[in-house]
Amino acid sequence: AVHLVENGGGSVQPGGSLTLSCVESGDYNSRTLAWFRQAPGKEREGVAAIYTDVLSPWYADAVKDRFTVSVDNARHILYLQMNNLQTEDTAMYYCAAARWAVPWRRATEYNDWGQGTQVTVSS
């Protein structure tokens, strides 16, 4: 099992930036690492993901060109750099881990989840 702890959430104005981090501990085999978010009253949605063996990222259309996902395999930290944040980005953000490569948008594919970190974008 993998233990995940997110950090870096907060409140920003529209157009601002935040960087989320997710520290892993436990099983470091090949895995898909992802960021999901969930706004009040909405379903959890995939934001971005990366497969540790290939490092080619995937993004939801809503965040493409604004968010960047990366992983430091040596330090076991997953990052999400978020630029030009908009009010619709307000949500609880979760990191998740799955063994091997999985359909990254499907939340049920992930075995391990962090506790979440809140991102609020408002003027």
- Average of the residue pLDDT scores: 94
Rg over CA atoms: 13 Å
Structural class per helix/strand content? Answer: mainly beta
**3D shape:** globular
Number of helices: 0
Strand content: over 45%
The largest sheet is: 7 strands, mixed
Poorly predicted runs: none
Terminal CA distance reads 40 Å
Helix-strand sequence: EEEEEEEEEEE
β-strand number: 11
Which percent range fits the helix content?
under 10%
Overview of the structural elements:
The chain is globular, with a radius of gyration of 13 Å. The model has no long low-confidence stretch (mean pLDDT 94). The chain is built from no helices and 11 strands. Strands 2, 4, 5, 6, 9, 10 and 11 form a 7-stranded mixed beta sheet that branches. Strands 1-3-8-7 form a 4-stranded antiparallel beta sheet, with no helix packed on it. It has strands at 2-7, 10-12, 18-26, 31-38, 45-51, 57-59, 67-72, 77-82, 91-99, 112-113, 117-121. The relative contact order is 0.32. It is mainly β and 123 residues long.
